[in-house]
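Hi R.,

Here's the chain you asked about this morning:
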Amino acid sequence: MRSYIIHMRGEQKRQENVRRLLKILPRAQIADAVAGRDALGSTTIAPGTHHLPRYPFPLAPGEVGCFLSHRQCWKSIIAADVEYALIAEDDLSVDPDIWPDVLDLINTHASADTYIRLPVKDREHPASTVAEREKAKLFLPRVIGLQTVCQVVGRHAAARLLAASDVLDRPVDTFVQMHWATGQVVHTIHPNGLRELTGELGGSTIQKNTRTTNWATREINRVIYRARIGARPQNI
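And here is the predicted structure, written out as tokens:
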């Protein structure tokens, strides 16, 4: 298995962590992150309207860049003709104590059709358990969680995700939630020993400007949207 680390090379505060990840992750290489603001003019965007349910928030340039960075990794997986690969963002931290169990689950169960999330937060409820190791568990979540700090993506899965995302209408993690739109089953490994070092590394590279006067409306819209996502669980 090879690994792609999404990294904006000018982000000096993250370079030391990237060097650590290059040593820890299997056959790791840097995947240059896309600057969303530079890509806006050449990217087809239909804010919130391309898939259902409608996404109630505008896409920030950083979210566009994040989505395009993942799309580049999906293309790289297909071009390399590998069965599957790990995609990590550059603020990932790996616990070496549990990592062998995680890799064992991946290498035993992953395939070209795989999408396995390795989230840093335990927010998903299993619909079914696939396999367990001493410290890690692979399961099918009823509702797919958010964040894309680390995942394993198969070659066929990458092709499905690319085909469904020729138009961007929401952030990449909310897009991956929509298994009915992508045709992609999503599994999760948790516990996995992973952490996100965003705070320690200078904050998020996805900047959103949210006016406090719109806070109540945004929260209402967020609750409604999450309810609509939750109404379409994975049942395989």
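One quick note: The chain is about 35% helix and 20% strand.

Cheers,
M.
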